# Entry
Amino acid sequence: MDTVVRSDPSGMHAALPLRFFLQRYPETYVEEVREFLACVANDTTPPVTGKDGKLSVVLGYAALEILSREAPVRLSEIVTQ
# Structure
């Protein structure tokens, strides 16, 4: 990863981040697959469950609703929709 930041009279310049998560964090995804396989092999619950996934979707819908209302939103409003 290029972490060089160059400064000149026109401003500060840095390399753009890699676009795809697998390019940015390859070791994270390898570890995630290892953890999943260990859970399957040992018949254990993964540390991240469907509830975690649902919460991220609810937060995304809440963010969209906040944008359209231009006002705060309670997560309980989103979950019931």
User: Anything to note?
Assistant: The radius of gyration is 20 Å. Residues 28 and 61 are 26 Å apart (CA to CA). The chain has a mean pLDDT of 87.
